[in-house]
Amino acid sequence: MPHRRATFSKFIIENMRRQGGQDADLASLLNDVMTACKLIAAAVSRNPLDTVGPGATVPNVQGEEQKPLDRIANEIMLEACEYGGQLCGMVSEEMEHPARIPDGYPRGRYLLVFDPLDGSSNIDINMTVGTIFSVLRAPVGVTEPTTADFLQPGTAQVAAGYALYGPVSMLVVTLGDGVHGFTLNRDIGAYTLTHPNMKIPPSANEFAINASNARHWEPPVRRYVEECVEGKAGPRGADFNMRWIASMVAEVHRILIRGGLFMYPRDTKDVSRPGRLRLMYEANPMAMLVEQAGGAASTGRLRILGIAPTDIHQRVPVVLGSRDEVERLVNYHAAYDRGEDTRFEAPLFNARSLFRSA
Ligand code: F6P
Ligand code: MN
Prior knowledge:
This protein is α+β, with helices and mostly antiparallel strands. It has helices spanning 8-18, 24-46, 68-82, 147-150, 219-229, 248-258, 279-292, 323-337, and strands spanning 58-59, 65-66, 87-92, 110-118, 129-137, 159-165, 169-174, 179-185, 190-195, 206-208, 241-242, 261-264, 277-278, 296-298, 315-316, 318-321.
């Protein structure tokens, strides 16, 4: 009975009631985020019919390619969330500094941090992209937040989620009480609850990593991947499958549905960058979702949600997914750091390498 499914708005209000309180500001903020996600879903599905043509790609603050749709998605999020009076500032992957709430709009108690269009290298090839968001409380009394006011650990998140723009559009959220997935029903223009209480299986034989970086990985990551690739005959005693979509939203969604491990670990490709993914608007919201679904999220050495940020655009290594697999990789890091495991010191291109030629 599709019409009996709870809409996102109804679910949020009832969920807050169940948790023993109702925060009208948070409910309306999440509604505004939802509206932005619908508008971005529409923009993504029109692309490339009416977006700007060639030459419009420019570098963003991170030195990465910023596509027209990155800018459009950013504008949509800002415009949908700035007027309602629930926020006093926003941080986006696409802006160097926090965005001010324009004069004339009331200021609220919350901060919104987001990646407006994650995985945007997939836009040109018509593959899944998404929006990631995190809600924090503004420090008491602050109405014009500075960068420092955003630098809160992931454990301080009040809510987190992502929208996925794939064959169907979905919105997956947590308010600290489980993870719930909503599917955009285009007939009625509403997200309705299709995946209540999502749970990540504790173990799974599937991993995701960009293997083109193999030569730059640290030994514990080499060990993990090589043991998976050795399959039934190796120490894991099981065959593993690998996936790499190059869109974090899509990878995390797969893990929430069927488990597995997703890694963008620390590597030595560019030593000035401790990882590829950004802590505040990629790693933290995804880590909250994954932990709320019974999984784990680590840098390989530290719990992601415990990290005290020092920069709004800071990068971290990310290892997340099925609990047993994350724990295994954390144990491999610990053993290596204690000097107990040196077998994988050598580059992978050796006799027992992942990439051996014969
Ligand atoms: O935003 C960063 C991101 O696009 C993620 O969505 C994705 O997991 C990763 O980068 C892909 O990186 P690479 O291009 O190195 O495979
Ligand atoms: Mn991203």
